[in-house]
Specification:
This protein has a 5-stranded antiparallel beta sheet, sandwiched between helices. By secondary structure, it is an alpha+beta fold. A hairpin with a 2-residue loop joins strand 3 and strand 4. The two termini are 73 Å apart. Helices cover 41% and strands 23% of the residues. It has 26 helices and 29 strands.
């Protein structure tokens, strides 16, 4: 039989025409409603995957495009009920049918499902889905039309691109060289990496023109170079360029040496949009190379002068070579060689050679005399060096010469080395001077001693006939001095590196102490506020009771409330430091979020709209549900505060996968994770605030509106649970907090209720509680509370007395012991108690668990713990559950 409405419908139309519809709820084709035939005619010719889910069972009729999407499920899928056709997402499709048959539409974007389309293998797919009802002739919904567009490849490509972008960003930030980009003709900083921030003293440069952010480089011509690169589109390469840069906005500039490139950034239309700056700080290399050049220069001077002196026999030339070499090698303003022509009175030497100044200038000053300053040189007693001759104790003891007020050349730094022959004769002296104090060093003495020795050898060679042997000996001395110099240079470099490491250690210590100061200051501030309320309320309570007034409930309530806040602060601090003991359970986050809906509505108020997007087939996790509830409430409260005029809070869950690159960057294990995202449409946060949101006691709220521990508590709990937290925020758009929990394989537990009012559990006098607590006041309160609850109570202050009592015939139902005690831990006491009485029950209590009953942040299996401080209600429940378990 021919069916006109199937004409041109492809393979799907052939299947419809041949299908034995009498075996299905649809019945023969001739009896199909017109609305169904119209829908089928529409979908068969569409290139987009479309499926009609007809009737309450959702009988599936689809086109050829959908058959390709169905994969190996086709053609068996054709004509089946949707729940039976796609059993892995049956709950999801049940909801679709419910909504569609109610006359409503649904749309999902970037929606992920796990399907079994090929050989029964699970496959994660991403889809864009649109559902709309199909109306029958009476205008009532009779089915649902679904448009299914698979975007799996698009999502995967986007994730690969995002990963690539993050990788490039990480490479940019961690590159050993400095990088920066500037845009526009004003060269406004758009991006810089850590090396560039270090180079410019961590000044705030982003968004500022170079001339404003780094004003000291303007006069040095670097902004002009940027102008040239921007206007011409031609790159500029600088090698070893000297630039004066400030360490910070308030310091003086220091010389730095840079290898760098200014590379223009070109748009698609060929226009220059900015400049890319890349380079390396080669200052240390420059210093080392300059030192090496200096040492090499000295070596060259030594070699050159040594060779010249060895080859020279003329005494005048010998002393001039020696004088020139000494002046050059120590950087003196002038040098002089005085030949030994001392008179009988020992008054003067004869000037034989001069270097650095003309003879006319030198002639204005008298010859040096055999005074206290010059005598050691004249007599060959040793080297004379003075950092400031005007402050030298040896200077000024003789009368001025020829009426000269100073009696010396215009110098402050002074260095003189005697020239002594091999036979011990003082041939003369090398005198070096400089107008600035402190110019000559120990190494200069060694160098001049070498040159003086070379000069003496050369002079002896000119006088005597034994030049060859003396030349070899002096050359060896010079080489030894040079080797000493090289060794000294290496040691200086090592000392400098060591000194720098010490400074860095001190800086880290200072930073650590600043962080501790911030933490302790925040703790002291909050605890002092809470203690002020407790102390004040108790004082007022005492005064009112002393006067016989019994209307004191408000004081008791105030003290109790403040004490609870102090206990909560302690728990938040432990959570932040990852010391809070966790009691993880196998949990489906979807159930917890769904059960918290009413609680969140009451907490956030009517002006905040709450929307949940809970993924179907969400994996289970092993986490502490109480801590997770606290984290969700914390994040929701923060979101509410960011939306004072109202807004939308979205809580979303989904299954996800963390690859090795992302896991390595954030120190977590790669693999499958369950994502819980809390997003708001509030005011958002700037980057400088985002950088500090996890810091303890950091808050943007006004005084009294927040402790600054909410997000740090969330961070500590998530990291202690093996997960990871990321915050994304944009000013004026909103904030999204994404929490990743590692997937745990296991069956979902029964649903747990949220917000049930605590029940007081009573005991009986036939049940004996042994209380072991070393703090007398804590023990007294605990004993009184247990007796109030109906228990018979035994008490002791130390574990040894408790063990002696357990060895007696005294009945003991449960041991209630502190964990941290001086002589023996609560865990050790419990182990010994079980040896004596295997049936005894144990409940631990402590303010800080250490590692006695907690390992890796998790309570040991089967362990009952009541954390201090605790209320009577909490004690009643814990002691009752421990006994009954």
């Amino acid at each position: 039989m021919s069916y006109p409405f199937l004409a041109g419908g492809g393979e799907a139309a052939d299947i419809i025409a041949k299908f034995k519809w009498s075996a299905t709820p649809l019945g023969p084709i001739e009896g199909w409603p017109g609305s169904l035939k119209s829908s089928i005619a529409l979908i068969l010719r569409s290139p987009v995957p479309i499926v009609t889910l007809w009737g309450e069972d959702g009988i599936m009729i689809y086109n050829d495009a959908y058959s390709e999407f169905a994969g190996g499920r086709h053609p068996k899928l054709f004509g089946s009920k949707v729940r039976e056709g796609w059993p892995e997402v049956a709950d999801f499709n049940d909801n679709i049918m419910k909504v569609g048959l109610a006359g409503q539409t649904l749309a999902y974007r970037d929606f992920t499902l796990t399907l079994f389309r090929h050989d029964g293998k699970p496959e994660q797919v991403w889809l864009n889905l649109d559902y709309s009802p199909i109306l029958n002739e009476s205008g009532k919904p009779a089915g649902v039309m679904a448009i299914v567009v698979e975007i799996t490849d698009k999502i995967r490509i986007e994730r690969e691109l995002n990963a690539e972008r993050e990788g490039l960003k990480s490479m940019f930030e961690q590159a050993p060289g400095f990088f920066a980009t500037v845009s526009g003709p004003e060269h406004r900083f758009a991006m810089v990496n850590e090396s560039y921030r270090t180079l410019v003293g961590h000044r705030d440069v982003l968004g500022k023109p170079v001339s404003v952010a780094l004003p000291e480089v303007v006069e040095q011509g670097f902004v002009t170079l940027l102008d040239k690169v921007y206007s011409t589109g031609q790159p500029y390469i600088g090698s070893g360029a000297k630039v004066r840069l400030k360490r910070d906005a308030h310091s003086d500039a220091d010389d730095r040496y840079l290898d760098f490139v200014y590379q223009p950034t070109i748009a698609d239309d060929g226009s220059v949009t900015g400049v890319f700056i890349q380079g390396h700080d080669v200052t240390e290399q420059h210093i080392i190379e300059r030192a090496i050049r200096s040492e090499t220069h000295k070596l060259n001077v030594l070699n050159r002068s040594g060779a010249a002196l060895a080859a020279e026999l003329d005494i005048g030339r010998i002393v001039q070579i020696a004088t020139d070499a000494c002046t050059e090698i120590v950087g003196a303003e002038f040098g002089a060689f005085f030949y030994n022509v001392i008179n009988d009175n020992g008054e003067s030497y004869m000037l034989y050679a001069l270097s650095g100044v003309p003879h006319e200038k030198f002639s204005q000053f008298p010859m040096p005399r055999n005074t206290a300053v010059f005598e050691p040189t004249f007599k060959g007693a040793g080297v004379v060096r003075s950092d400031d001759i005007l402050k030298d104790a040896r200077y000024g003891k003789s009368a001025p010469y020829h009426g000269m007020p100073n009696g010396h050349l215009p110098v402050r730094s002074y260095l003189a080395v005697p020239v002594i022959s091999r036979s011990g004769e003082v041939i003369g002296g090398l005198f070096l001077g400089h107008g600035e104090p402190g110019r000559f060093l120990d190494e200069h003495e060694e160098l001049l001693i070498g040159i003086a020795g070379q000069a003496a050898t050369a002079i002896d060679n000119g006088r005597l006939f034994q030049a060859a042997e003396r030349e070899v000996n002096d050359r060896r001395r010079a080489e030894s001095a040079l080797q000493t110099l090289n060794n000294t240079l290496e040691q200086r470099v090592i000392d400098e590196v060591y000194a720098r490491s010490k400074v860095e250690d001190q800086l880290r210590q200072i930073q650590k102490m600043e962080a501790i100061g911030q933490l302790t200051g925040g703790i002291a501030h909050d605890f002092n506020n809470m203690l002020a309320v407790v102390i004040g309320a108790l004082n007022l309570l005492q005064r009112n009771l002393a006067r016989g007034e019994t209307d004191v409930d408000r004081f008791v309530a105030a003290a109790a409330d403040s004490a609870k806040r102090a206990a909560s602060l302690t728990q938040r601090l432990l959570a932040f430091s990852r010391q809070q003991p966790l009691s993880p359970e196998l949990l489906v986050i979807n159930r917890l979020v769904a059960n918290m809906s009413n609680l969140l509505v009451r907490t956030l108020g009517e002006h905040v709209k709450i929307e949940t997007v809970l993924a179907a087939g969400l994996w289970t996790v092993m986490i502490d549900p109480v801590q997770l509830e606290s984290a969700v409430i914390n994040l929701s409260a923060n979101a509410r505060d960011a939306m004072p005029q109202g807004g939308k809070l979205t809580i979303e869950t989904q299954n996800t996968f963390v690859d090795e690159a992302y896991a390595k960057e954030y120190a977590i294990v790669p693999g499958q994770y369950v994502l819980l995202a809390v997003a708001d449409s509030g005011s958002g946060m700037s980057q400088d605030i985002l950088d500090k949101v996890f810091d303890p006691f950091f808050t943007t709220k006004t005084v009294g509106k927040g402790t600054g521990l909410g997000l740090s508590q969330v961070y500590g709990f998530v990291r202690q649970s093996g997960g990871h937290v990321r915050i994304y925020s944009e000013i004026g758009v909103g904030t999204t907090v994404k929490i990743y929990f590692p997937r745990h394989y296991g069956e979902a537990p029964p649903d747990r209720s949220i917000g049930i009012e605590p029940k007081i559990f009573k005991g009986s006098n036939s049940e004996f509680v042994l209380v072991v607590e070393d703090d007398d006041r804590v023990r007294a309160i605990s004993v009184e509370a247990l007796r109030e609850l109906g228990y018979s109570v035994l008490e002791t202050s130390n574990p040894k007395e408790a063990l002696r009592l357990l060895e007696s015939d005294q009945p003991v139902t449960i041991l209630f012991t502190d964990v941290v005690m001086p002589d023996m831990s609560g865990r050790q006491l419990a182990d010994l108690a079980r040896e004596k009485r295997p049936e005894i029950k144990v409940l631990y209590t402590t303010g800080y668990t250490r590692n006695a009953i907690v390992h890796n942040g998790i309570l040991d299996p089967g362990t009952s713990l009541l954390t201090k401080p605790f209320s009577v209600e909490e004690l009643a429940e814990k002691i009752r559950r421990a006994i009954d378990t």
